[in-house]
């Protein structure tokens, strides 16, 4: 079970076994408070735009964050429950390394994308979305595009490439998603989702939880990306169970256990009293309701990945994630693989510079682009 949770491939790396307990100790440095205030998207991307796409039921609107105007396009697809903002810090890093354009999109039912049928998260529908957005952006002659996806987004990237929805596809990069371990992890996904807090008393509180739980290990990335994962609650803030899910687990530094317990009791009492005055935040996507699509995202993914004819890069947080098909394919040189240790599942958030280095080197080696003048690789 522990391994399955560790290899969870739909949401980010789950909390440590047992979740947060009031007696846990999580030091952040001697007497030092960390800044969990949110950061704006504009610090990392040049523009934000909404693209309209025609479908059978009307128009869907996809939110995009973009940088650059020259070079190949890096089309970035986020994981389940996340948003395009999970690529923010990575975008700032890669844009300084190579000549490229970046387009990070909120997938259907995620972030600020608005579609007519948000319940349809099938791999086929989501892959078609990618093709429609590319066509809406660039018309019949799109520039060379490198598609890069994390977790669920990695699976959708493979389905998009295999279905030839992007005629100008240069290459494919998949981050920390492998069919074998993904299928194994599905059995424990609902337990993991139930273990997460359902609400947070503020965006800062959500950011703090994401960092201290290990969901996102890079505090800068958490500060910009968590705003894409949570939203203000629309329903009444006095609903039962709210207060005990937003205050627990956020642990102050430098408290002994006795003082900490008293502090937690006091904080929970204050939460009960102040709850109606707070802006309560909850998850934007109810991942538990997407279960019927999980198998379709990942079943047959390894074989599909290997059939894609473009150059392929697989970035993993651990070598134990490789399944049989990929192990054989890797030995046959069908794709390039790199393991980035000391990362959680959100590899591109935890180690944006390492992921940018791997991707930049891959793209330059294949002559897709060049390093920027003055950048020392």
Could you give a short description of this structure?
By secondary structure, the protein is an alpha/beta fold.
In words, what does this structure look like?
- The protein is α/β, with parallel strands linked by helices and 377 residues long.
- 37% of the residues lie in helices and 16% in strands.
- The chain is built from 14 helices and eleven strands.
- It has an eight-stranded mixed beta sheet, sandwiched between helices. The protein has a three-stranded antiparallel beta sheet with strand order 7-9-8.
- The two termini are 41 Å apart.
- 45% of the residues are buried.
- The N terminus is likely disordered.
Q: Main β-sheet: number of strands, strand sense, barrel status?
A: 8 strands, mixed
Rough shape?
Answer: globular
Q: Enumerate the strands of the largest sheet in spatial order, edge to edge or round the barrel.
A: 1-2-4-3-5-6-10-11
How do the helices and strands follow one another from N- to C-terminus?
HEEEHEHEHEHEHHEHHEHHEHEHH
> What is the mean predicted local confidence, pLDDT?
84
Task: Please bin the fraction of helical residues.
Answer: 25-40%
> Using DSSP, what is the number of strands?
11
Structural category is alpha/beta
Rounded to the nearest angstrom, the distance between the terminal CA atoms is 41 Å
Strand content: 15-25%
**Ranges with pLDDT <50 over ≥5 residues?**
1-31, 236-257, 272-277
Report the total helices. 14
Radius of gyration (Å)? 21 Å
